[in-house]
Each structure stands twice: as structure tokens, then as C-alpha cells.
């Protein structure tokens, strides 16, 4: 069986979501530590330009967006706990709301001045300038991550209040077993907890603290660190892609909210690909043929215009 390779960086909240999921599903993995900011020269041959974090690699197949990764990992583990059969749609839709709206809330809180004051990166003027320039390029053309701080604080407090009441009666959000919903909420709260000046937000919520400790206890599973060149070599040496059917040549896929860096190639129906995803066939001079998969929810596909080529 081919290795699961996670391209991630330590402080990335969506990376933490997948790291913890690997522990929950008891999956072994290899980790590549990527830079928090561009350039990511050894990742681009695999993704074709996608620059959100993390990225999951299995052989020549690349999976983008944590929602899709969750399905791939659950199937690989043969474990249906992430998507409970009696509440799969509810849990998945709830997780989508958390990954978009609540994430927008916590970004506003995490990047407020008092939180940034304790951030080591922000203490170095050149590093801070590089980080802010990178994020400005990443979100160019979008306002999806913008929210007034007072609005964000109000929404965050209201959400914690609701969680506290619910968790007084259940172990996890959908009952006695953790689902995709728990992992989506956890990475948002982890992003706040990682900032010491904001960690006191949880002091009034003992049930939320108990739940967070239960989530943290899953750990990250058995994993080894490899460098990016080893990940590229694994792609080069991986077996040929399974059969696929060409659906449309000359397309590009990009998110609908932010990070409008497109991935271009041919839209294909790939054997064994997750349902409800776009599969883009690419040929890269470094690694050869790759399939890059995106969930349909949260992404759009369009023909490549002359100006985009």
C-alpha cells in the first residue's frame, strides 16, 4: 500500500485538523514540513499551483481541502466514525459551516493586535512584512476572511455558549463518538488556544475544555518526517495512474471563497476517486502524470481562457 504523505506546517490549523484525524483513525503517515509562506517550489509540481495547506499525497494522486482528505482517510482506514451513517449529511454540512464561517471568526480573533504582539514571527520586521505580503497575495480579490473584531468576538462567545450547553449532555458534538464535525470545530479552537493571550477565552467553559482534552488525546498517529525531495521521488516512482475517462480538456479549478490560485489541466472521471469531487489530470515535467482532486463543495470549475494559458 502506498504511503500517506501530508504536506503541512506546524502552526497551520487545517493541518492540525488532519494530523489529529490521522491519530483518531490510527493511520501511519509521512510528513513534509512546508514553508508557511510562498515559494513552495517542491510542492507546486504535485498540486499545479494550489497553495492552501495542507495537501495529501498518495502515490501520484493529490488531495486538496481537508473535507476531501477526511473522506479519503476514513475510506483508507475502513472506519465510518467520521461520517456516521445516521447523521453523515448533517455532520458534513455542519463541518462545512465551521470550516468557512467559524474559521472566518477565529481568523479575525487570531490576527487582532494583542494576539499578534506575542507571535514570534511578528517580532521580526522582515518576517512580519513577508508574511503579510504573502497573505495579501493569497487572499487577493476576496473579502471572505474579513470580519470586524467586535462582530467576531460576539459570534465566538455565542458559539462557545452553545457548545458548553450541548456538551453537558454528550461526549462529542454528535453523541458518544467523534465525527467530522468535532475535528472541524477543534482546529478552530486550537488556533485560538495556541495564542496564550487568547487562551483565557475557554476558562468559563469547563465542558468545552473537557471536550478539547478528549480530542487532543487522539494524538497524531505514528508518523515520520521526510523532506520534499523524497515526496517528489515517491510520486515519480509510484505506479501509473488507474484508468480515467476524459470529460473536458482545458479547464481550471479554484476555490469559491479565497485563494484564487487556479489548477489547470483536464477534467477526468477517475477510477477509484472519491465521489463528488473534481479530478484534474496534469503532466508535470518533474513528477510526470498526476491527478489532483478537489471537493465539489467549495470549489468551481471553468474553462481556461486564452489569457489564463
Describe what this molecule looks like in 3D.
- With 309 residues, the chain is of the alpha/beta class.
- It has 11 helices and 10 strands.
- Strands 5-2-1-3-4-9-8-7-6-10 form a 10-stranded mixed beta sheet, with helices on both faces.
- A hairpin with a 6-residue loop joins strand 7 (263-270) and strand 8.
- It is globular.
Spatial extent as radius of gyration: 19 Å
Largest β-sheet summary: 10 strands, mixed
* Second-tier CATH architecture of the domain at 88-216: Up-down Bundle
- Cα-to-Cα separation, first versus last residue: 36 Å
Strand order, sheet with most strands: 5-2-1-3-4-9-8-7-6-10
Unreliable runs: none
- How do the SSEs run, as a string of H and E? EHEHEEHHHHHHHHEHEEEEE
For the secondary structure, the number of strands is 10
Portion of residues within helices: 40-55%
Q: Which topology of the domain at 88-216 does CATH recognise? A: Glutathione S-transferase Yfyf (Class Pi), Chain A, domain 2
Identify the CATH class of the domain at 88-216: Mainly Alpha
What do the pLDDT scores average to? 95
Structural class: alpha/beta
Form type: globular
- Our estimate of the beta-strand percent is 15-25%
Question: How many separate helices?
Answer: 11
Which terms would index this structure?
309 residues; 10-stranded mixed beta sheet; 41% helix; Glutathione S-transferase Yfyf (Class Pi), Chain A, domain 2; 11 helices; alpha/beta; 20% strand
Amino acid at each position: 500500500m502506498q504511503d500517506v504523505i501530508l504536506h503541512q506546517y506546524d502552526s497551520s490549523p487545517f493541518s492540525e485538523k488532519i494530523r489529529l484525524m490521522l491519530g483518531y483513525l490510527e493511520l501511519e503517515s509521512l510528513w513534509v514540513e512546508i514553508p508557511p509562506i510562498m515559494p513552495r517550489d517542491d510542492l507546486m509540481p504535485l498540486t499545479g499551483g494550489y497553495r492552501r495547506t495542507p495537501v495529501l499525497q498518495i502515490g501520484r494522486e493529490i488531495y486538496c481541502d481537508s473535507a476531501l482528505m477526511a473522506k479519503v482517510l476514513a475510506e483508507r482506514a475502513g472506519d465510518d466514525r467520521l461520517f456516521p451513517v445516521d447523521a453523515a449529511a448533517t455532520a458534513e454540512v455542519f463541518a462545512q459551516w465551521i470550516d468557512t464561517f467559524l474559521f472566518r471568526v477565529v481568523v479575525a480573533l487570531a490576527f487582532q493586535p494583542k494576539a499578534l504582539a506575542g507571535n514570534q514571527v511578528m517580532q521580526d520586521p522582515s518576517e512580519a512584512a513577508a508574511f503579510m505580503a504573502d497573505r495579501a497575495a493569497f487572499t487577493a480579490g476576496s473579502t471572505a476572511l474579513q470580519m470586524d473584531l467586535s462582530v467576531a468576538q460576539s459570534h465566538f462567545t455565542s458559539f462557545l455558549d452553545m457548545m458548553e450547553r450541548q456538551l453537558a449532555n454528550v461526549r462529542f458534538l454528535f453523541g458518544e463518538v467523534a465525527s467530522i464535525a468535532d475535528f472541524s470545530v477543534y482546529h478552530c479552537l486550537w488556533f485560538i488556544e495556541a495564542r496564550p493571550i487568547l487562551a483565557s477565552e475557554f476558562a468559563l467553559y469547563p465542558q468545552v475544555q473537557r471536550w478539547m482534552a478528549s480530542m487532543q488525546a487522539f494524538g497524531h498517529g505514528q508518523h515520520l518526517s521526510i523532506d520534499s525531495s523524497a515526496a517528489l521521488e515517491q510520486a515519480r516512482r509510484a505506479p501509473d495512474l488507474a484508468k480515467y475517462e476524459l470529460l473536458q480538456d482545458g479547464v481550471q479549478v479554484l476555490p469559491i471563497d479565497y485563494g484564487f490560485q487556479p489548477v489547470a489541466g483536464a477534467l477526468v472521471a477517475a477510477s477509484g476517486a472519491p465521489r463528488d469531487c473534481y479530478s484534474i489530470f496534469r503532466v508535470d515535467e518533474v513528477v510526470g502524470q498526476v491527478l489532483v482532486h478537489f471537493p465539489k463543495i467549495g470549489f468551481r470549475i471553468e474553462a481556461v481562457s486564452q489569457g489564463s494559458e
